[in-house]
Amino acid sequence: MSQEFYPLRLQDNCDVEHLLTPGQKQQPFSVNNPAIEVMTDFSEVVPVTVTEGVSVDDALERMKSQHVRLLFVITLAGKFVGVISSHDIAGHKVIVHMQNHGVTRDEVAVGHIMLHKQHLRSITFDQITHSRIGDIMLTLKNSGDQHLLVVDETEIGIKRIRGIISASDVSRKLRVGFDIMYEAKSFAQIEKIITEGRDLVI
């Protein structure tokens, strides 16, 4: 059975004067917004990965080319084993490994300095869907973590990394500095600066 199509009614644009930009589409971020709004969802965005044996400098170049500051580390078989950040590579970890093992920088691989998955904390996707950004901020503040993995489970019980939340993403989207996020005595203070768009003096 064939489906019928119909022409749409056209209109003029004499009274249209404004162009929408991406930043205008969303309502201003608030601590009361759904937490899922600050999660990088791997059902929509492909996670950027690197294998354990890649040199740290090659990993850093991959970060730059992909415009990310964190890579998910996988084995050659594609199994998730940890994460590595630009801070890990630029910080003291590489130098310590070089000194302890008597190797050059070229010999330092991602697997030598990555943060193993057993040292990463996670929350479930179900928790995210029932939480607000303020809940995430409080979680990050209490744990001291810079990243939280979000884990879901398939119908047959296979656990997988569904996404990630980073403190820097929360800070950027709320337009609130790390110092304010972690030092503010209440969400009322944070909400005030978000609303007024100015720096808060603690």
TrEMBL record:
The keyword rRNA processing is assigned to this record: no
Domain CBS: 39-103
InterPro entries in alphabetical order: CBS_dom, CBS_dom_sf
Signal peptide extent: none
Pfam families according to UniProt: CBS
SMART domains the UniProt entry points to: CBS
Domain of life of the native organism: Bacteria
Keywords: CBS domain
UniProt-listed SUPFAM superfamilies: CBS-domain pair
Name of this chain's protein: CBS domain-containing protein
Annotated organism of origin: Amphritea opalescens
Lineage of origin: Bacteria, Pseudomonadati, Pseudomonadota, Gammaproteobacteria, Oceanospirillales
